[in-house]
Amino acid sequence: MSSTVSTSRGLLPPARIGTCETPNAGPSGSFSQPELEFNHTDDTELLSVSWNQDYGCFAAGTSRGFRIYNCDPFKETFRRDLKSGGFKIVEMLFRCNILALVGGGANSQYPPNKVMIWDDHQSRCIGEFAFRSEVRAVKLRRDRIVVVLEHKIYVYNFMDLKLLHQIETLANPRGLCCLSHHSNAFVLACPGLQRGQVRIEHFGLNMTKLIQAHDSQIACLTLTMDGLLLATASTKGTLIRLFNTMDGSRLQEVRRGGNRAEIYSIALSPNVQWLAASSDKGTVHIFSLRVRVVGEDSSAQSNAAQGLAMLQQNSSTALDALISPNTGANPGSSLSFMRGVLPKYFSSEWSFAQFHLPEDTQFISAFGSQNTVVIVGMDGSFYRCSFDPVHGGEMLQQEYVRFLKTERGLDRDVLIA
């Protein structure tokens, strides 16, 4: 596998950008600069939706460009309607003007094997990566660009686009990969080389950890912002597991259901008290976690280094500090007293709260503020709902928006409890 990187000066000031190629790189063409247009038609197709790194915004890739939306309060912040086609991947870098774009859609002029680094402030491409196979995903940190192909992952330095790491994976058509986002801890999680295996790269510690998370292939995974905890689901879709990324130990297991399902997204709340999962069964499940809070939203980053050092020094005994006594918030089977006698299904932890959605649409979910969950669907819908942190049960819909509109106006339905 080879790739080519081309850049222009001024990617991220004050760095100066040169040209860098990976070994055995071949020739690469350039992206043409997108031509803006005013789209007044109603045939715009939604190709993808994705959260930014703190889940405060999401990007929508369309057949005619891309759009960015703020979640709280909900509003479209900007859009780019292009004459030259659309994008199947739109990856934000928090809330700044830099995005990673990969072409997609029937009439797109941008090939699916190239990544364009787009500066929306300058309205131009400031760098690109070209590969010999289709790009499955792109992930951004403030200091790294990660490009995911079906069998390989490339990690580049953001300032000069130099290739730093290459990782071989099992076939990964979903483009599964996630990163930590604290500046003092760079952790990457991706499929390993065996079915059900997750590879954890602690780049700051120069350490690789392999976790046999499931018997079936990995379908979904996510890390906490500090990279200390990993949540996974398999293609079977019945169980979600939480792991310590330092020693690979399993911390908790919760059950989405008894029947096979496709898990679309897993999200962890900033304080690691809750986990949300969406699937093709049309339900977003909320689970209570038994992991102790390392730090609340504002202080989590300063405490992440302490937690990482603690686990590095003695991960076996330090594990006790990550686990809280089971509060019993997640309901279990009425036959759970026969644990070890009946099949494992009967002793499972079930979801604490639920929200029901159309079954024929793919949704991704994340946590908002004050016990709320935000949900974005491939049908162009946005939901905000709240859950009772004490009693759980059915969540309450607070807001519903049809955001994929050709005009700036939005169809909105706000429900205040």
UniProtKB/TrEMBL annotation:
Its main location: membrane. It is a peripheral membrane protein. SUPFAM superfamilies: WD40 repeat-like. Residues 21-33 have a biased composition (Polar residues). It is found in: Preautophagosomal structure membrane. Residues 1-35 are annotated as: Disordered. GO terms for cellular component: phagophore assembly site membrane. Keywords: Repeat, WD repeat. This is Autophagy-related protein 18c. It comes from Quercus lobata. The gene is LOC115957709.
